[in-house]
Amino acid sequence: MGTTMHRIVVLGGGFGGVHVALALERLGRMGTPVEVSLVNRENYLVFQPLLAEVVAGSVGVIDTITPLRRLLPATRIYIREVEGVDVEARTVTLGPGILPRPTVIPYDSLVVALGTVTDFRGQPGLPEHALPFKSLADAISLRNHVIHVLEQASVEEDAELRREMLTFVVAGGGFSGTEVVAEVNDFVRGACKRVYRSIAPSELRFVLVHSGERVLERELTPRLSAYATRTLAGCGVELLLGRRLSAATSAAAVLEDGTRIATRTLVSTVPTSPNPVTAALGLPTERGRLVCDGTLRVDGREDVWALGDCALVPMPDGAGFAPPTAQHAIRQANVVATNVAAHLTGAPQTHFTFTGLGKLGALGHRRAVAELPGGVHLSGFLAWVIWRTVYWAKLPSGTRRLRVGLSWLADLVLPPDPLQLNLGVGRGISQAHFESGDAVFHQGDLGDRLYMILSGEAEVVRRENGADMTLARLGPGEYFGEAALLGRIPRSATVQALTPMDVLILPRGDFQALLGSLPDLREGFEDVAARRAAQNAERLEEG
Amino acid sequence: MGTTMHRIVVLGGGFGGVHVALALERLGRMGTPVEVSLVNRENYLVFQPLLAEVVAGSVGVIDTITPLRRLLPATRIYIREVEGVDVEARTVTLGPGILPRPTVIPYDSLVVALGTVTDFRGQPGLPEHALPFKSLADAISLRNHVIHVLEQASVEEDAELRREMLTFVVAGGGFSGTEVVAEVNDFVRGACKRVYRSIAPSELRFVLVHSGERVLERELTPRLSAYATRTLAGCGVELLLGRRLSAATSAAAVLEDGTRIATRTLVSTVPTSPNPVTAALGLPTERGRLVCDGTLRVDGREDVWALGDCALVPMPDGAGFAPPTAQHAIRQANVVATNVAAHLTGAPQTHFTFTGLGKLGALGHRRAVAELPGGVHLSGFLAWVIWRTVYWAKLPSGTRRLRVGLSWLADLVLPPDPLQLNLGVGRGISQAHFESGDAVFHQGDLGDRLYMILSGEAEVVRRENGADMTLARLGPGEYFGEAALLGRIPRSATVQALTPMDVLILPRGDFQALLGSLPDLREGFEDVAARRAAQNAERLEEG
Fold it and tell me: Does pTM surpass 0.80?
């Protein structure tokens, strides 16, 4: 009889998951009888530290990602969502692939490395109007959005709207938020100088909203944190310290103290939550993270390990839990792989003992901060050179290092192009949030969408012969804006929110597709439109 | 008094529109008092001839596009849709930018170069299930889709489903269709050899459906067309000649003779229609194209010119109309610019006299066909070298030539990576087409979407204790699939189409967002689900 293969399923293809699989592949090559499967939503590993550079275009879109199959040739890779895990039956059920047929993979050992997800719920308007910054898709969307705003601003003649469009707000002063605001600042200033010449530097405004007194104060020593704060301010970033974002609309960021910053670009790097699959495992969690012991085994299970941002891993010195960084996840991965192999032979489990090597953060063009081992603290150009070198050397393959090297080289000689990768994906049905007094649209606007109120109230106001006349008050479940879509005429009235209001938006294209397919619906809308028109005519006569 | 500037608005930023603006900018620099505006949906010019290489990854995504603002520094560029044109008032109204406020630009001369759009209407299932191939977004989507299919096929164990997933069908044997099928063939075969090693070459199938007897027969001489046909067949592409595509579902291409080819990838390059804006201008058209005289003026207008694929331009020799190629559009552009300037001074209009320079088509990896001036006909590697050189030299800027050169170089030394650029854009509400007998989903499947019938009929069948029981027949306006979404349980029955059927699909995420926002809707769905469950239980007892 041959050796029975020990089946290990790794959930998640970030730094943690990929490095567990890498270490297990190594053990497999040395004779440990393991069969590794990895489940991830994307077919690549994202190199997070370079993501902010995608926004500015200093590195190419695909330079920051490496195909999982190149890294892990001996691992069975499933590009799927995780539908659920049955820890008693020891099976993982995958979400739909090409067909919605359920795929069930049995395991002997399970490794959970699902990371965190962006979660804007509970903050009015943020899910609809704030741009997250976590994945490659987020970085590309932000870049496209910034270019869209610059395109439109460059031909806009309304000075107030120009100011609104040329204000860029980032919330969160950790590594991610500071890097993003620095890159957006560099990119926009450069693009306006070289390409969008009708935009004056004085029209640009970059704002970083941060709850602390200095940026990066939790991440760095006070001296470096102060340096980073000064550097950002010196590059033209306005720092709103000790302030918090509380809501968003399509045209403003609203702070807790009631300040409204008129903007069309709001990036929030603040809230991440553990992946909801983690909570659904039925294993012990605290604040959504899996509770582990020092060997990274999940409490109460012999056959489940967890690591990275979805796990609560006690630090070896007893001082709290491991921070959510790549360097910790990679070290945890090696411990997990060793322990899975030890579990097979009944050998004792190893403890996680890594305490951290240093910290690096970029602050835009050729400036960075670094805390290195041995108490060496650096800032400025030298720190930036170290930052680039360290991350370049950490790139997960030689080809990737070559590609990024070429990109950086090209970046030195070729000007970055503000190309908007319009992928033509209509947004379909979406939602929007309005604060009291905000206009949804104005009389005379083009009618390009239908609205349905989910919560809150709005009023419909028509201006005729210089006088405003309220035509209707609308509440939850009621819709508006259909007349301009049915007849392709300009909006016949202004609609504005009377209270904070959430609406569902159906764009013209989808609306017309629906009407074309469902003639009854078309009649229904036409009836309502005709009735409303008659009522409005009456009211205007009375008024 | 200074010179009054002559305002010219160019609609469209393809080869035609961009070259008109380039020529007008040149005239402006030489003293002609022109003020040029250009309206286009994207902020870049797409270099169509290289688009098929994006699919295979031989050139990078952004190598094929050039920012309009770099090409046209003196032109006012509006990245907008065209909402409408008033040829009497001489104004162009633009679609919404950041706000839905209408922007109206007045003109003295109008140039229409709006090209064509993909139009699958009238072909059952094509709008929902066929992939177009016209824009950069199309090329990227096709690449992502092919990688998605390979990822899923590589871990699929059902042999029939694997065959279906590994069959790639392209409809249309013109330049676009032959280039696409050749590139997909090369890319998939290469990726399976290097990365997706669990897929055997014998499992792959590539099909080109073409109504003619040879590919490229309308584009090339009989000898070269025969060579192209043999070359494709020799690379492993199955040619279905004298056949036409008539319908599509998510799992099949259906031909006019009733043949069904089971596939998950259907590209159709056949139908393009003139841009709908062209028809809405109220100017004389034939088959949707603007009727011009030999000076490219639109019939009956002193101040409107048209060129490129949206115009019917008589050939100088009286033999029909100019073909829809870049070389013709570029020559037409120079004539239009000259004539706009002549109109200003009252000078006579110039005639379009270009008759064509030659024809080039790539057939995948290092093979092409070429018809050059002087009756020189070439095929194979030499033709491919000429093809690359000609198009490389035609790239619209030095930076672009450098970038594409670097990409081709990198392609020689670095293996192309099958990275799927998952931009995380959920598809939202979509539609699907089913032919009679097709299953929408099977009992036991994961429930990830809600369906509403737009036209046609379906039956709901449950298998219990080995017997099939029809639970319901559903028709237009009725929905199904809600139970699995409300309870996150597997599908409790199979639903299949009884007639050709079109449905609207609401994915789980959108469904839950809607239910969360509209509690009444949730109650409504729960009532229906409970009632249906009770009815089904009764029926099964009776049965």
Answer: yes
